[in-house]
Amino acid sequence: MIDALLHYPFMQNAFIAGILAAIACGIIGTYVVVKRMVFISGGISHASFGGIGIGYYLAQYISWMTPVYGALIFTLFSAIGMGAFIRRTRLSEDTTIGIMWAVGMAIGIIFIGLTPGYTPDLTGYLFGSILTVSKANLVMMGILNAIIITIVILLYKEFLAISFDQEFGTALGLPTQRLYLILLCLIALTVVLLIRVVGIILIIALLTIPAATARQHTHNLKKMMLLSITFGIAVVLGGLWLSYELDLASGATIILLSAAIFAASTLFTRFRHKKHNNLASPAAD
Amino acid sequence: MAKEVVKLNNVWVQYDGTTVLEDINLSIRQNDFLGLIGPNGGGKTTLLKLMLGLVAPSRGEVTILGENPEKGRKHVGYVPQHSLFDRDFPINVMEVVITGRLSRTRPFHWYSRADREAAAEALRSVEMLDFKDRQIGMLSGGQQQRVFVARALAGEPKLLLLDEPMSSVDTPMQAEFYELLERLKQRMPIVLVSHDISAVSVYVDKIACLNRKLYYHESKELTPEDLEAAYQCPIQMIAHGVPHRVLKEHTHE
Domain for residue B50, yes or no? Predict the structure, then answer.
């Protein structure tokens, strides 16, 4: 792969895309895991398919429109929509998410069907195609990362407070609902950033597995983010290399590799705890 | 008469046409240690939320140190009920306590040195400063509760509200926790919500009973009629611990 990396621009782009994706995933995935937003993140990522479809359809009328821009706008709106809906309706949270998840995908299928001409290659969006990432995609990924990092730095103490104890935050007079919606928007941006890398269906894995792995090794949120970024980079680049050498689908290889590392980390943590507890006191749980 | 910290004047709260609180009059003064008891769903938490400005009265007026509750909120330290917090959350004791400063910090800024000092001081006053770097879930229930009191104190409140603080504290630790509150009441009035009438009545100075209406005589005594009206069934008081009187012989005037 080193050889390919030196010679082929598409390999270099894939390499950079992997690192950019891992950074966003490590930061936002940490919030997704500690604030238990896995299901809503799944909803947001699947609903983004609606934006892909609308983007395809509108591209015939609007010159700057692309499926990814369509996904960016649509995903932000659906994230805010889901957050607001959960708050205002009497439906339970998982029902609302389940409905919007399916509706988003259905919208995508309808609009792609309405677009005249060739049916585009959908598997790239559904399952990822990191090897086809363009320079323009990289620039957008870089900008999205910059936005995510800036907002997280500015609102770090507020995000930590509402993640740990939303009720107390409300009692302090924090705008907890608005902060939650901002967090959902950051998830939406991360989703858009990840579509090319692992695909809509596998995004949720990259948002949860590296962060869940990191959580087993630290009790500090900032360290968890950094560790999660490290795991993310390792699995994305490792998965890319494996898929290249073994000629496998890149997105799926990345996910399976991260799951394998998570499993190893879980076993290691168990073993360490057992040892620790045996030393400390035999009666401890 | 000691300074009035909280005043509720003919306050009503209604949700969707149901009356939750009816014509509440209550004043809490400097050095008060008030136990608030009553059946579940009787409006105890709603009363606390009124003082925090999280619920608006349908009628009547709430003032905290002469201000409306939204403004007065920064003077109120709140220890919420904590049955559902994630013990595995990656946060240490200091990080939990300093969130109590959020009502005094500006958005888009990190905590200042003054915030860190206030948080450390709050931890010292509950004797938990030595644990400041521990992950919150590694502490016992009683220690966690002290940390949540410190979080409320970090905002330098002029009133302390505790919602069922004993539910996560082991029985042997409860006396110690009440002693902590005993010390804190020198600094600010305390309102303690609890369902455990007999334990509360040992420590608090005044008791009020709430079930939609408030039964309160600015004292530690409630009449059997009060309790019956509030709980809608005769209640037998079993006093334990130090001898004390909750029910006073009552003559109708």
Answer: yes
- List the beta bridge partners of residue A249: none
Contacting residues of B for A167, CB less than 8 Å apart: 80
- Assess contact for B206 and B16: CB atoms under 8 A: no
Touching check for A174 and chain B: CB below 8 Å?
A: yes
Residue of chain B minimizing CA distance to A225: B90
Distance from CA of A154 to the nearest CA of B (A): 5
pLDDT interval class at A138 (50, 70, 90): very high
Nearest partner of A185 among A140, A148, A222, judged by Cα: A148
Residue-wise pLDDT for B126-173, tens only, equals 999 999 999 999 999 889 999 999 999 999 999 999 998 887 788 778
Residue B237: inside a domain? no
**Tokens 């604030």 belong to which residue?**
A35
Kindly indicate whether the ipTM for this predicted assembly is greater than 0.90, answering yes or no. no
Tell me the C-alpha distance between B162 and B148, whole Å.
10
The overall average pLDDT reported for chain A is: 91
pLDDT level of residue A167 (50, 70, 90 thresholds): confident
Parent domain of B192: 4-231
Q: Which domains does chain A have, with CATH numbers?
A: 2-280 (1.10.3470.10)
- Left (φ > 0), alpha (ψ -120 to 50) or beta: where does B85 sit? beta
In-domain check, residue B240? no
How many domains in chain B?
1
- B223 in contact with chain A, both atoms CB, cutoff 8 A: no
- A163 near B CB under 8 A: yes
Q: Which CATH number characterizes residue B205's domain?
A: 3.40.50.300
The whole-number pLDDT of residue A46 equals 96
Among partner residues A164, A215, A224, which is closest to B96 by beta-carbon distance?
Answer: A164
CB–CB of B102 and A167 under 8 A? no
